[in-house]
Amino acid sequence: MAAFDEKHVQSAIARLPAMATKGIRELRSRAESQELAALIAACDAELEARPVDFSADEAVDHLAMARATDGMDFIDAVAVAFSKVRPPSEVEHAFLTWIAGNPGASYEEAVAQRGKGDVGLLIGHLIYDRFGCFRRFVAEGADLSSLMLIKDRSGRSVRYTLRDEAREGLKRAGVL
To answer: How many CA atoms lie within 13 Å of 49's alpha carbon, on the beta-carbon side?
Structure first.
């Protein structure tokens, strides 16, 4: 039996979500040398979907998150993500409560409320740290935080509003 017959290719594709990013890149390189188009495409799709490089442990954690929210709509996925999977930290909870009560708040207002300039990082990690729960909702090329927040970039500063679906999910989670 060949090392890269169809059965082995399909098995490798099935393992991708639980693999470290580095391992996927290595597998892609081997697949390229063997001209295995389906495996190359699957590796590319997995690499493209990840917001950053994952270790094997992180990949397994995000796969477990995906399983915990499988089949749920976005609202229920938010509820589970922010309760059972990874409840918000004190900092996240304070920000989510504040932004829910201040729709259209500017970046500068968020920084003043937060007391630090790392608001963008905080906002990004709301989804990134729970990526497995939300992966299937992320549109290609979209930034992750846009799942939770509407970002109005028409003025001098970005303005943030919590999406209605995110608000409802956070209410169900007991965060708001």
So the answer is: 19
CB 83, CB 76: distance < 8 Å: no
Spatial contact of 148 and 61, defined as CB atoms under 8 Å apart: no
Q: Nearest-CA neighbor of 102 among 149, 156, 171?
A: 149
Task: Output the CA–CA distances (angstroms, integers) from residue 129 to 18, 84, 155, 168, 175, in the order listed.
Answer: 16, 13, 29, 20, 16
**Torsion over CA of 83, 84, 88 and 90, rounded to 10 degrees?**
90
pLDDT tens string 5-46: 788 889 999 999 999 999 999 999 999 998 899 999 999 988
Cβ-contact 175, 96 below 8 angstroms: yes
Q: Is the dihedral of CA 154, 158, 159, 161 positive or negative?
A: positive
| C-alpha to C-alpha distances, 145 to 8, 31, 102, 148, nearest whole angstrom | 36, 33, 17, 6
3-state secondary structure (DSSP) of residue 167: helix
d(CA 161, CA 171): 16
Q: What pTM did the predictor assign?
A: 0.83
User: Dihedrals φ, ψ of 15, to 5°?
Assistant: -85, -15
| Distances in whole angstroms, Cα of residue 110 to Cα of each of 116, 123, 127, 157, 160 | 9, 10, 18, 11, 9
